[in-house]
Amino acid sequence: MSFWGQIGLQEGTSVLGVEIQALHDYGMIIMVGIFSFVGFMLFKVLVSKYFSVEYLQSQWLEVVWTILPCGLLLMLGLPSIKLLYLMDELELPEGTVKIVGHQWYWSYEYSDSFGSNYSYDSYMASGSESSGDYRLLEVSNRCVVAAMLHMRGLVTSDDVIHSWAIPSASIKADAIPGRINQIGLCFLRSGVFYGECSELCGINHSFMPICVEAVSVEVFTMWIVSNHESNLNNSNSMNKALLALSLIYDVFSSMWASVSSVVRKLIYLYYWWFKNVFYYGLYVPAEFCVKSGWSLLKWGSGMCLSFIKWVGWFLVSPLDASLYAVTYTFGQVCSGIWYVVTKPIEFTCWSVKSVIKGIRSLLSFSVFLISSVVSSMSSFTDDGFKEVVMERVNLNTFKFLWLLQDYYKNRR
Ligand SMILES: [Cu+2]
């Protein structure tokens, strides 16, 4: 949460929050640089006494001061666009929290893969200042999520437009009646994070705070399971079996998805290897060598054989053989001329084709280069951090699924 006298943003508490705040710092560095440079030049122009009546144009300078701002704009815009898309990218979340805005409180529902239909309302806690809590920020029931687990929030509203926001996690989603907005909830650590309704929704807009409590996966699972227990006490056994079945189906479908993606990648890798290394690197040159060698051999032996034959013929009837030799040579010369005339056209066609091919590969290479630059620029956290986060999220996912599975196994 924010404190008195705080100038910068709140410290990032979610995976994307860290990236987004780093993007802010990165943008600020570039913009401070631009402001300093432009300010310095302006100051220089105002106080400078140097001038030249002959220095009227410079093409190169114009090219530079067109390209340079374009590059700067790309450097500012591309990481931002990439992060924007990453924020909407939510593939196979482990759990879902439905967040519904009301006039003037929030309600949270946990009914996705947990097998429970648990929901509760979250009002602003009254008299929070006297109990030592944060004024106008503490709530009666907090939204509980698991830290370092891939979760999602579905935000909607019951009446007017509200907005569910946690500034430290860089989350803000409008709660619109009749629409569902999706947000990723992957907090980096356990803790309590505060926010407020961020869309003017009526007279008590200021008094519907948001309070998220991120806990460890073990605690979260225990909490979900205990809610499920209390829920099940009111439902029949048929329901229980259905819920267990749906859970098992979820586990198997996610396992199947990961296995099939790995197999797909392996097949693609094999195809790529076969096509590029085996086919172009080994097969095509070998085929060329064998084919051309064979045809050269055939041609050479054919020529030798016909020459020996011709010599025999010449000894028998020199006139006929000489006449044949002259016509044969003439035919060869004509075909040579034909070859010389048509070959340049063929060569031109071939070179045009190759140039087009070259341009195409150059374009695809530049697209590849730009995309790799974008992907390297949009990630501000180092690879070590990302690896740790991935490892922890994977571990927590397994832990979560295992705990739930264990629970259902013991229940049967
Ligand atoms: Cu509001």
From TrEMBL:
<keyword id="KW-0249">Electron transport</keyword>
<keyword id="KW-0472">Membrane</keyword>
<feature type="transmembrane region" description="Helical">
    <location>
        <begin position="26"/>
        <end position="43"/>
    </location>
</feature>
<dbReference type="InterPro" id="IPR001505">
    <property type="entry name" value="Copper_CuA"/>
</dbReference>
<keyword id="KW-0679">Respiratory chain</keyword>
<feature type="transmembrane region" description="Helical">
    <location>
        <begin position="63"/>
        <end position="85"/>
    </location>
</feature>
<dbReference type="Pfam" id="PF02790">
    <property type="entry name" value="COX2_TM"/>
</dbReference>
<dbReference type="InterPro" id="IPR045187">
    <property type="entry name" value="CcO_II"/>
</dbReference>
<dbReference type="InterPro" id="IPR034210">
    <property type="entry name" value="CcO_II_C"/>
</dbReference>
<dbReference type="InterPro" id="IPR002429">
    <property type="entry name" value="CcO_II-like_C"/>
</dbReference>
<comment type="function">
    <text>Component of the cytochrome c oxidase, the last enzyme in the mitochondrial electron transport chain which drives oxidative phosphorylation. The respiratory chain contains 3 multisubunit complexes succinate dehydrogenase (complex II, CII), ubiquinol-cytochrome c oxidoreductase (cytochrome b-c1 complex, complex III, CIII) and cytochrome c oxidase (complex IV, CIV), that cooperate to transfer electrons derived from NADH and succinate to molecular oxygen, creating an electrochemical gradient over the inner membrane that drives transmembrane transport and the ATP synthase.</text>
</comment>
<keyword id="KW-0479">Metal-binding</keyword>
<keyword id="KW-0496">Mitochondrion</keyword>
<dbReference type="InterPro" id="IPR011759">
    <property type="entry name" value="Cyt_c_oxidase_su2_TM_dom"/>
</dbReference>
<keyword id="KW-0460">Magnesium</keyword>
<dbReference type="InterPro" id="IPR008972">
    <property type="entry name" value="Cupredoxin"/>
</dbReference>
<dbReference type="Pfam" id="PF00116">
    <property type="entry name" value="COX2"/>
</dbReference>
<keyword id="KW-0813">Transport</keyword>
<dbReference type="GO" id="GO:0005743">
    <property type="term" value="C:mitochondrial inner membrane"/>
</dbReference>
<comment type="similarity">
    <text>Belongs to the cytochrome c oxidase subunit 2 family.</text>
</comment>
<dbReference type="GO" id="GO:0005507">
    <property type="term" value="F:copper ion binding"/>
</dbReference>
<keyword id="KW-1278">Translocase</keyword>
<dbReference type="GO" id="GO:0004129">
    <property type="term" value="F:cytochrome-c oxidase activity"/>
</dbReference>
<keyword id="KW-0999">Mitochondrion inner membrane</keyword>
<keyword id="KW-1133">Transmembrane helix</keyword>
<protein>
    <recommendedName>
        <fullName>Cytochrome c oxidase subunit 2</fullName>
    </recommendedName>
</protein>
<keyword id="KW-0186">Copper</keyword>
<feature type="domain" description="Cytochrome oxidase subunit II transmembrane region profile">
    <location>
        <begin position="1"/>
        <end position="91"/>
    </location>
</feature>
<dbReference type="InterPro" id="IPR036257">
    <property type="entry name" value="Cyt_c_oxidase_su2_TM_sf"/>
</dbReference>
<keyword id="KW-0812">Transmembrane</keyword>
<dbReference type="GO" id="GO:0042773">
    <property type="term" value="P:ATP synthesis coupled electron transport"/>
</dbReference>
<feature type="domain" description="Cytochrome oxidase subunit II copper A binding">
    <location>
        <begin position="92"/>
        <end position="226"/>
    </location>
</feature>
